[in-house]
Design goal:
The protein is an alpha+beta fold. Helix content is 17%, strand content 39%. The strands form two sheets. Strands 1-3-4-5-6 form a five-stranded mixed beta sheet, with no helix packed on it.
Length: 153
């Protein structure tokens, strides 16, 4: 009986360790080293930290998450009469040397849009994290934009 109990403890402990490794590994897939520019495929969600860039798989465009323009989203833990909006600036560069600054927002209202088309590249802002909270303070450097880059032609 004692041997079975010890084996059960070892199996459970091993399972917990494997589960922790999987959870930690999957939750940090977008937090790997950003020392080099990443190549990204079209039509897939990508997460770009503030002040970092990605290059499209065809090497036609470089997209940089340049800045957070505004973040008036209602923080978790508060009740607001308006949900608010967050806006970011991206810099799109081409091999020709052309640069274009674009703004994307978490809401589509009047002059705000969550997507933009430049040449044959469509960029959609899916999310901006971290979401404001009254329970946690975060540094502006921790912002990450979740985008989808697509070809329009």
């Amino acid at each position: 009986m004692w041997k079975n109990s010890e084996k059960l403890k070892q199996v459970v402990l091993s399972g917990i360790i494997v589960l922790c490794i999987l959870i930690y590994g999957c939750s940090n897939m977008n937090d790997v080293d950003w020392s080099e520019m990443r190549m990204v495929e079209y039509d897939r969600e990508i997460v770009i930290p503030l002040n970092r860039s990605v290059r499209t798989i065809d090497k036609k465009y470089i997209v940089k998450f340049d800045s957070v323009l505004t973040d008036s989203r209602c923080p978790d833990g508060l009740m607001c009469f308006w949900s608010g909006v967050a806006g970011i600036r991206l810099i799109i560069s081409e091999d020709s040397g052309m640069n274009k600054s674009v703004e994307l927002y978490t809401r589509n209202i009047i002059n705000w849009s969550d997507s933009v088309v430049y040449q044959d590249l469509k960029i959609k802002l899916k999310a901006l994290n971290p979401y404001p909270s009254i329970y946690k303070q975060f540094d502006n450097k921790s912002y990450k934009a979740t985008l989808i880059l697509s070809k329009t032609k």
